[in-house]
Amino acid sequence: MTLPVDLKDVEEAQARIRPHIHRTPVITCRQLDLQAGTRLFLKCENLQKAGAFKSRGACNAVFAASDAVAQRGFVTHSSGNHAAALARAADRRGSAAQIVMPSNSSEVKIAAVQGYGAAVTFCEPNLAAREAAAGEILETTGGALIHPYDAELIVAGQGTATLEMLEQVPDLDAIVVPVGGGGLLAGTLVAAKALKPEIQVIAVEPRGADDAYRSWKSGTWVPSVAPQTIADGLLTSLGSINFKIIRKLVDVIWRVEEATILRAMQLILERAKLVVEPSAAVPLAGLLESPELLEGEFTREHKRVGVVLSGGNVDLQRLRFGASTPTT
Amino acid sequence: MTLPVDLKDVEEAQARIRPHIHRTPVITCRQLDLQAGTRLFLKCENLQKAGAFKSRGACNAVFAASDAVAQRGFVTHSSGNHAAALARAADRRGSAAQIVMPSNSSEVKIAAVQGYGAAVTFCEPNLAAREAAAGEILETTGGALIHPYDAELIVAGQGTATLEMLEQVPDLDAIVVPVGGGGLLAGTLVAAKALKPEIQVIAVEPRGADDAYRSWKSGTWVPSVAPQTIADGLLTSLGSINFKIIRKLVDVIWRVEEATILRAMQLILERAKLVVEPSAAVPLAGLLESPELLEGEFTREHKRVGVVLSGGNVDLQRLRFGASTPTT
């Protein structure tokens, strides 16, 4: 079966978006290595434009559009990082952006989207209302819908984080990413498995939002029902295009507890000195909960593991930290 | 007058410490640029080993020592980043480290020093008690005192941050650093002015701990009396070796209010997604308070300004953030 996105798509995306995004650094932190029991290479997409990897896919979709489409503008529905990323990408293209946001979106996120010049339409906080509101705008403006995660150009764009990481650290044994809608995971899989067929790609998902795990385990797409997790970026349902890729290529999907996500987030803040949102801490949470990392000729401590820190957009006022984690 | 440290010392330090420290990334953040009204290049020493630039000087002093000295071990007095940096450097050399810390040092910092295998001796929280305790240990062990900031090898080591930054971003118009004891500022001056005589080096100091400003203004060393600032890394008195260099080479010293330091710290956390300690936010605070940045043919917005984010060791539990800063 041919997959909907291949390495060439990701390479084209990389060339297309290069002027519009950061080449984010890869950071190492021995204190985190000791906690995880393996050697970590943190790909800092929390330092990406608009604070998340979402700028990659949004820029790819916006700059791949024809001039005629760009003139009519771009539309999406999102309460989170894709909203700001699309608003920014459209602004750079000189296009209008209309963003449907749930009425309960945080003020900081609304201000960020409006700061990039996008028009915001509010709707009831559910998927049906979001899609209906976006549909109305599309009919009126003739603009293009840029789906937050389930679209080929978005997947190809998100895959560029892995292309970059493998340029920066070629000899990785594994890559660990969070999975929500699956755009980042699908892009990671396409890029990593084409460049290094032997690399292991591990996805991590909160137990309270484990539709990707259940879909992967059962081999059929399982809808997400009333997901609950502090990792707000991972509340979305797995996309169908993404599932085709994930089903074929992913090595394993781990599930993690909420308390481990919080602990991982605190470790990244305190030890790696990086501000990350809860979703970005989910891969480290997986490594903290899973002592049996990977089969093979190396012991865990000699593995070189890439971790995508997916985003840094978190309301610091809401953080309540526990006692500092002990130094090891 | 020949200065006590020159570019060659800094270059030797760079070669000496390379295996022992991180080459930290330089990060840009348009949202911070808009706040500062100029183009910022953030040298992330908060991501340095042991969480601060202090690892550079400590490694330089420890690895420059003779084997005979290394065998007797290293001694210092410090409540902060130098303590952990020296403990780590001594550990890497295979030497003993004895650290005198004030009895009111934070538990996290004590644990960090002990985590590197150093022996901690507690003393009353004042400079006389610290020096007396260190003196006793020196007499007993015959070890070498590694002063936290006022020593040639320390200055040369701290200067390597600027050597690196100018390799990473050669075309800087200015560099802004905090000043406390003056080791970082002196090292920055030696490296920057030798490599790029036209570059402007700006030091920033809290108004409540402005002995460097007063010394520079008056042309004579002014002692620090009862300094008060949230920037705990800058409570130290200006070193005399450092003052010789600063007096001759610094372009200007700015002073900032406590409220601006807190605002700058929050901006760096929220916008640049980096955890920094208050001292590391002092340079940005200076840029926020000083609209008249630099004379010359460029307007402020076209200036390229390197900022050393000096460290990231902050107790996150103690942070109490105000309302989020508005997006621009």
Q: How many individual domains of chain A? A: 2
Could you say what the CATH topology of the largest domain in chain A is called?
A: Rossmann fold
Major sheet summary line of chain A: 6 strands, mixed
Level of helix content of chain A? Answer: 40-55%
Rg value of chain A: 19 Å
N- and C-termini, Cα separation of chain A: 48 Å
Structural class of chain A: alpha/beta
**CATH architecture of the largest domain in chain A, please?**
3-Layer(aba) Sandwich
Largest interface: A-B, 35 and 35 residues
CATH C-level class of the largest domain in chain A: Alpha Beta
Order of helices and strands of chain A: HEHEHHEHEHEHEHEHEHHEHHE
- What is the number of helices of chain A? 13
The general outline of chain A is globular
Strand order of the largest sheet of chain A: 1-2-10-7-8-9
Overall pLDDT confidence of chain A: 92
Q: Approximately what portion of the residues of chain A adopt beta-strand conformation?
A: 5-15%
Oligomerization category of the chains in this entry = homodimer
Give keywords.
4-stranded parallel sheet; Rossmann fold; 6-stranded mixed sheet; alpha/beta; globular; 2 domains; 328 residues
